[in-house]
Amino acid sequence: MKNLGLEIKERYPGIYYISGKQALFDTQIVVTRQLDKETHRTLHVLSKHVKEEDVRVFIREAVQMSEPGDRNNVDAVLQVSVSANKEIYEAIRKCDKVMCDALKELMKEDFEETKQETLLEAIRNLMETMKCSAEQAMAALKIPDAEKGKYIAKL
Fold first, then answer.
1. Distance from C-alpha of 10 to C-alpha of 29, rounded to nearest angstrom
2. Which of 57, 73, 81, 116 is most buried, by CB atoms within 10 Å?
3. Cα 10–16–17 angle (5° rounding)?
4. What angle (nearest 5°) sits at the alpha carbon of residue 133, between those of residues 132 and 136?
5. Could you tell me if 132 and 154 are in contact, meaning their C-beta atoms sit under 8 angstroms apart?
6. Which pLDDT tens digit goes with each residue over 73-86?
7. In the structure, how many helices (H) and strands (E) does the chain have?
8. Which of 47, 51, 65, 63 has its CA nearest to residue 99?
């Protein structure tokens, strides 16, 4: 590929880097079937052909991560993995309470953010359609006093 101005290097089994003058930006390509399962377990769960046990190990390890940066990475991997392997995640959710609770814990921030966005939209809708104040809208939605400030700040 050098004659096209591109350089492709395999830095690890299954992980390729593309760079060069013709590349708009450096790119990484991950071929999940070529990955070393032990070294790149997190990337392995991105595959459409992941095994249920690999997902379970990933979930257990992800719950133990506590750094904010780690959580963001886990969320990104989890979203891709779930969309590629819905059946496996659904089976785990239905038959394994511990794993289900772990998934809920991993996605707690996403659930909270979605809840807040939904409530914020409901407040705006009530204010517009019922011609009421933000306080009246939040009272109608039974939003606790302790949480009202964060919604007022976003209106």
1. 9
2. 81
3. 105
4. 80
5. no
6. 788 888 888 888 99
7. 7, 3
8. 63
Identify the three-state secondary structure at position 144. Answer: coil
Q: 152 is written with which tokens?
A: 């007022």
The torsion angle over the Cα atoms of residues 113, 115, 121 and 126, rounded to 10 degrees, is -150
Q: Give the integer Cα–Cα distance in Å for 42 and 66.
A: 16
Please name the residue that has the structure tokens 């606790």: 144
Query: DSSP string covering 25-86, please?
Result: S-EEEE-GGGS-TTTTHHHHTTSTT--HHHHHHHHHHHHH--SHHHHHHHHHHHHHHHHH-H
Q: Which of 117, 126, 107 is nearest to 154 (CA)?
A: 117
Tell me if 90 sits within 8 A of 55, measured CB to CB: no
Structure tokens at 121: 């939209």
Query: CA torsion sign, 144 to 146 to 152 to 154?
Result: negative
